[in-house]
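We modelled the chain as a single entity of 511 amino acids. Its sequence is:
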Amino acid sequence: MISVPGVITGADVAADLRVDCDVVVVGSGAGGATMAAELAAAGVSVVLIEEGGYHQTESFGAQSVRALRTLYRDGGGGMAIGKPSVLFAEGRCVGGSTVVNGGMSWRTPPPVLARWAAADGIRDIGEDAMAPFFDEAEAWLSVAEQDPETIGRDSELLYAGARSLGWRIVANRRNQLHCAGTNNCNNGCPTGAKRSMLVTAVPRALAHGTRLYADCRVERVTLDARGRAAGVTGRFRGQDGRRGSALSVRAKVVVVAGGAVQTPALLARSGVKPAARQLGRNLAMHPNANVIAFFDENVTGWHGVHQAYQVREFQSDGIILTANNLAPPMLAALMPGHGRELGELMAGYNHVVTAGPLIEDSGAGRVRTLPGLGAQVFYQLSDRDAARVVRGVELTATAMFAAGARRVLLPVDGAPALHSLDEVRRLLAAPVPARALRVFSVHLMGTARMSEDVRRGVVDSYGEFHGVHGLFVCDASLFPGPTGLNPMLTIIALAVRNARYLRDRCGDYSL
């Protein structure tokens, strides 16, 4: 690996470290890296800490098993306990989940912003107030529609099916600069075209003097005698994977940006408790499900970009449809059967389109820190949302058959292969119990939500923890509720907004 000035990994540390800074940021994903870059550019002394490793663009390739091992927490196999349990994935590397997501970059819908302002009294959150921050983020990240020549056949088939049904479908907006269309987003972009934090905010932060410590798990946020944020303590992971040297950071401001699972877990084990006991609650997940459609033609889904389009016809009902190619190991995990039966299904890999609904959920889960187990996620799919998933599955199958699919596999336990839309409708006409649905998520939000009402929220309008001076949260756990769309751009825009707020009040924190 090429040495990068300002980056210190576990392999570089042979003894315990003690460092001082103005602001320490925990987590280098969309929120943390943006906050670090903004503050460092303003002349603030910043330390950025990442639990995962520092993996450069040159190391990325099509080996999904390697990516799951090096770029994801728990190999991408997180599980929210419920009926059904929901599989979820978190990035754990420098750049966080922006390294392994599909790059979809959508502004928060204005009705969602209005709802947050009305329900929680959040200041400066309306469409007009947020527009400058979205403008800046989109410019930095080269947000645009996909170059036409990189759109794959799987996306073209979704588009054809939706258009034949008269449905509204829009071109995806992604943080990419002339994406090559290798459909390798989930393994890390091998060309650097996807403008993840790894190739945008992290280098910007480093250029302005930020010190980045990778392979380091922060164990606690420390408080001074007055109960104010005073820094963090953590420990590096050595080359052999064992616990390595300790890191102690003394800072005037602490920003926690570990995501909707790890942020409340860190705060809980640090003994930080909001008066209203809302920390770890109000988890939203945007449940997803996959329909596997087989076509006679050769689709070759790994040619072309990840999710070139979104079907928005049913957005007002909380349902968006997309197509997203899965690597063979991931697809095999969704297929029914074993042995020869599974082998025969996988032999048709190049004829498969995987597509499905993203649901704006109405339920609320919880993250709890349990002795000996650490952070555990609990989430119950509500009856309303389960019905939305079923409807989204039927709509997806409708689009696939309209595009020429010859059979589909539904994400319903025990469902056989279906060869027509009539068969799909007959199967789904009977009530489908929630526990029979196979559901996953990559959008976790809301466990440290903003609210000016201390009875409802964990942090205020700008992410500062109620009752703890100098402790900020800067990730999707801030959200008062689900966005209904891919949340990355919302995280980044809020991070810019909140960094400017903190920058303009340096005197309040003696920065």
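As a brief sanity check on the tokenised model: DSSP finds twelve helices and 21 strands in the chain. The domain at 7-141+206-276+445-506 is CATH 3.50.50.60 (FAD/NAD(P)-binding domain).
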